[in-house]
Amino acid sequence: MFSGIVETMAQVVKIEQEQGNKHFTLRNPYPQNMGIDQSIAHNGVCLTVVKNEGDLYTVTAMQETLRLTNLDDLKVGDWVNLERAMSMDKLLDGHIVQGHVDQTAVCIDVHETDGSWYYRFEYESTPDMIRRGYFCVDKGSVAINGVSLTVCEPDVKDNKGYVSVCIIPYTHEVTNFKYIEVGTRVNLEFDIIGKYLARFASLLNSNQ
Questions:
Q1: How far, in Å, CA of 167 to CA of 172, rounded?
Q2: If you write DSSP's letter for every residue of 108-127 in order, what string do you get?
Q3: By the 8 A CB rule, do 109 and 121 touch?
Q4: Which of 176, 208, 2 is nearest to 86 (CA)?
Q5: What is the pLDDT of residues 137-162, one digit of tens each?
Q6: Cβ neighbours of 22 (radius 10 Å)
Q7: Architecture of the structural domain at 8-84
Q8: Global pTM?
Q9: In terms of Cα–Cα distance, which of 107, 74, 88, 98 is closest to 4?
Q10: All structural domains of the chain with their residue ranges
Q11: Are the beta carbons of 16 and 26 closer than 8 angstroms?
Q12: CATH number of 103-206
């Protein structure tokens, strides 16, 4: 489990394809605090460390993960947001993030506004996806590339969902939001509490 508070970034130095899987080797920002089998969120995707040698470590993404996330877009030299698993004695500064990305979204607008940054994203939103809890609510929480953010201006129209977020200068500098531009694909994880409530309501309605 994670909180959506990105600790740092890591740069991709090698990508290897093995059948339907991809092995990503990154430069290790935690040389003294990373072990094999450790779970780390990469752009919000929970991945297991399978190799740790010197200042490099490797994680593997299976085909289904690549299909649902933007990890398949990564190239050597790209920067990835990192967060280690949350310990239960820490403050929950963000919101409950599982590291299970629901789908991707595409940036359709980005601009600076009074020292902060405004981003708007578009994603697929069918009635069935909404029943499963894949939607945003005003002032709710959403994880974008693993960053816990407050939702503003959510909307759904013609099977498309829309969500905007405002990024303070600190978050812009310490995460890969500074590399996001119009057309960039990002990972979305919707609020787990909202997904449970939506699923419960759907089951109640189906039994009536």
A1: 6
A2: EEEEEETTEEEEEEEEE--H
A3: no
A4: 2
A5: 999 999 999 999 999 999 999 999 99
A6: 19
A7: Beta Barrel (2.40)
A8: 0.93
A9: 98
A10: 8-84, 103-206
A11: no
A12: 2.40.30.20
